[in-house]
């Protein structure tokens, strides 16, 4: 193990939250070990500001809970303790031990399944050294000791940090088999940190990527949120596509955006706008990004349904239904996101029809803003919308009692037939959008 003393790294206590320092001090005074670990150490060493602080300790969850009144044990894949200080939550994890080589008997350390089918093997406790090698990436396995200000490195994490390398700990294939989500994490950190995925780690990805099909759709959705709502969505998309991982999250969209440069541009633009909003501290909703990711597939399917004779709104409605059903097989998108996503899509038709008699009403709709932003995004990347964006932009600047001239497509009854929405031309061969 390498010990990096305080004068050989740049971590300063003043960049660590009071909550995290308190937790470590209290654990130490109860004769336990306690270290800052994971993303916080990594980000501090890179000169950034960690968004949260994780602590690793040799105290069991029960022991930690007994020490902190303001704590609770939570268990998802493994049990950890949340210690709360006002709005800040410090995550305390007990050192994880080896389990693969452990016999399924002896000191009660064997892994087994809980009644809920939860794998409990990760709750096999261990030492600091064992904990380090159980982590995913070398740069995520550095420990900071607030007692002596040293950093502990068991897995050449420091070197990889300096070389800006995302490297899985241990045998890549073994580690990816153990937990395929680590592949998504590798791509995520490569994007976030602007690091390169180390060769052996990268080579193992195509061999193991299919294992992501085994991951429960709820966990994949959690990971989707981390991938695209941490402020680095655009680069993350690039990483996911380079490593051919996007299709394990969005199979239909992946196919679609690889064929169609307009679709690709739309998705990229939505990611860029999300990143920018996060940077500016504005709220972002997964509904909008999901709307962009799944729009190309939905739009194509709607077109097919229209060709078959469905009226535009019916076609859009049915296409949305099918695309969502198909997406849900991979990713469990909660209804609170899929509903507004759908509304954004259906709103596109209403905006494109530009029936100015009702235009004012639409402005009042609670989904107008998102739908209008989405329309502009589509125009920006060159989708044919009949250039109605300008109409809506202008309408919003006019006083209440003043209306704009009707749009061309508004002539007669803005029905479902003639004057309907312009088509996007797509010369490529087709595949059924959902399967
Ligand atoms: P950030 O919070 O900035 O996204 P992080 O590195 O803190 O990054 P978390 O998801 O909070 O990431 O996880 C905390 C730590 O737990 C990681 O740094 C890593 O050491 C370990 N870890 C998380 N997920 C896994 C996994 N699937 N396999 C092995 N170790 C993991
Ligand atoms: Mg973290």
Task: Give a short overview.
48% of the residues lie in helices and 10% in strands. The protein is of the alpha+beta class and 435 residues long.
Overall geometry: elongated
Q: How many strands, what sense, and barrel or not for the largest sheet?
A: 8 strands, mixed
Radius of gyration over all CA atoms, rounded? 26 Å
Q: Strand order within the widest sheet?
A: 1-8-7-2-3-6-5-4
Helix content percent band: 40-55%
Following the backbone from N to C, one meets helices and strands in this order, namely EHEHEHEEEHEEHEHHEHHHHHHHHHHH
Class computed from helices, strands and strand pairing: alpha+beta
Strand residues, percent: 5-15%
Give the N-terminus to C-terminus distance in angstroms.
51 Å
What is the CATH superfamily classification of the largest domain? Beta Polymerase, domain 2
Identify every distinct bound molecule in the structure, by name, code or SMILES: adenosine-5'-triphosphate, magnesium ion
Structurally, the number of domains stands at 2
Q: Per CATH, what is the topology of the largest domain?
A: Beta Polymerase, domain 2
Do you know the CATH architecture of the largest domain? 2-Layer Sandwich
Residue ranges: pLDDT <50 for 5 or more in a row? Answer: 101-121, 410-423, 425-430
Average pLDDT rating: 88
Q: How many H/I helical runs?
A: 18
Query: What is the number of E strands?
Result: 10
CATH class of the largest domain: Alpha Beta
Please give a structural write-up.
The structure is a single chain. The chain is of the alpha+beta class. It folds into 2 domains: 2-163, Beta Polymerase, domain 2; 250-411, cca-adding enzyme, domain 2 (Orthogonal Bundle), CATH 1.10.3090. The protein contains 18 helices and 10 strands. A hairpin with a 3-residue loop joins strand 4 (71-75) and strand 5. Helix 7 (181-193) packs parallel to helix 9, helix 13 (286-307) packs across helix 15 (335-353) and helix 14 (312-328) packs antiparallel against helix 15 (335-353). The longest helix is centred in the last third of the chain and has 22 residues, at 286-307. The radius of gyration is 26 Å and the shape is elongated.
